[in-house]
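Obj.: predict assembly geometry.
Materials: sequence records (below).
Method: joint structure prediction, all chains together.
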Amino acid sequence: MNNNGFASFFEFNNVDWTKMGQATWETVWMTVVSMIAVAIFGIILGLILFETQNSNSIGAKIINWVVAALVNIFRSIPFIILIVLLLPATQALVGTIMGPRAALPSLIISAAPFYARLVQIAFDDLDHGVIEAAKAMGATRWQIVTKVLIPESSPALVSGITVTTISLIGYTAMAGAIGAGGLGNLAYLDGFQASNNAVTMMATIIIVVIVFIFQFLGDAVVKKIDKR
Amino acid sequence: MIRFKDVSKTYTGKEGPVKAIKDVNLTVSDGKIYGIVGYSGAGKSTLIRMINGLETPTTGSVTVNGQEISQLKGEALREARLKIGMIFQHFDLLWSRTVLENVEFPLEISKKGNKEERRKKAEELIKLVGLQGKEKAYPSELSGGQKQRVGIARALANDPKILLSDEATSALDPKTTDEVLDLLVDINRRLGLTIVVITHEMHVIRKICDHVAVLDAGTIVEDGPVLDVFKHPQQAITKRFVNQETSTGSADDTQVVVDQLLESHPNGVIVKLTFHGDQAKLPIVSEMLRQFPDTNMSIIEGNIHQTQEGSIGSLYIQLTVENDNQEQIQGALDYLKTMRVETEVINREQ
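Observations (raw structure tokens):
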């Protein structure tokens, strides 16, 4: 086996396709599951930030301060350090610190605060007049959230989750390097450590393709729902 | 009936408290179109938002149909708001919904009827505002006037007793403005709805309102039936608003013409006549010329406008006489007075 030189990156007959398929599935699984959880937690956190800002009540101010502080802290911890920090929590939550399932807590906790800020910006960007109009019609707070805030900011929410998901794909590769499975794990163990450059190359190509697919899907959905 | 009693509103700004509304008292009778006119910053928006509780007075009370809106909270306030429709300067439609879905929106909020009944009601309202065929369109596909029609249909969805119009025509061109105003009058007549209009355009007041209040720096400086205010504006600010609407050219232009005429006809008399109501339709001036055959008349400027209560017009004329027969002029002026035309002789500067 020729492990040196540029050509070694393209000797794809050295690739174990069953393993590659399995790793691709793990990466997609980690990405999709964490994306769904990030969307839910992000919208909830973003909503809390939006609803408690500019409020005069002391309770709202405290909630806003606490959530904003948590969001800022978890956004600023580098992902690779966050995984290590969360090892005990992961063990308690998932029962293991190895495999794709073990990657979920750190993926979600690192990406949800980032998405929460995007959600808050999306709500802030809404025309205040529309919210006032709904209030004038006698809408409850909950009705305003479900019938005005979320549908009216949906293009921004979708493009926000697209951006977040693409950085999640990068995170899954990083998580893979320390044992979470997926393409990152394969590229690191079977590619880098086993000096099989073609595996590293193929894993990279597949990750790029996955990123392209998610970006394409996100853009298509935004185009479909944006009636402005 | 809407009643403001000693209403004041104070905001705490960075440089101390700001009094936005000062001791406002006003009453809007059922079924009327009440206009509040003022320049931007006068407090119009704050005032109209007190009617549906989007703003609360610092002192005083706002009562709508016997209920003190300024004291309501939570569910009771939301319940009261269902009976008060509102339309906005920038329409404030939901872009993510079609025309039909936008009109259904308030019905979803009030949880009135099932899906089918809501649809039927929305379709009726869309017909009422003249938008049939546009049900499936999104707001971005509509013109400004069409968007405001959707706004009106939406405001009427819960069968309100009151419609609030917040500068609803200020973003529209003159032709569309008139169409929307005609629609508002039509709705007022057909549904017996009370309408409160705030605007900075006297045109809107003249065209649709029964009653007008002039708001300046948070205080109502003048109010009364529209025709009265147009005929006899008392305050300087009211005169400015009335002039904005009744003079065809600018006031300066008229003054130049008058000066020229005074110069070229040293013997003549320049008279401003104001007509209102049915007088505007009578041939008063030609009758005057017939009775006083020695007088000659030339028209300097004139105009006539329609209001909800009748026409109002003004005419600048110059009267000259042959043989310097001043009695004829005096007679002509007296005749006009007996016909109850307001005459104002514009004096030449001595």
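Conclusions so far: Chain B has two domains: 2-246, 251-346.
To do: check interface contacts against the pulldown list.
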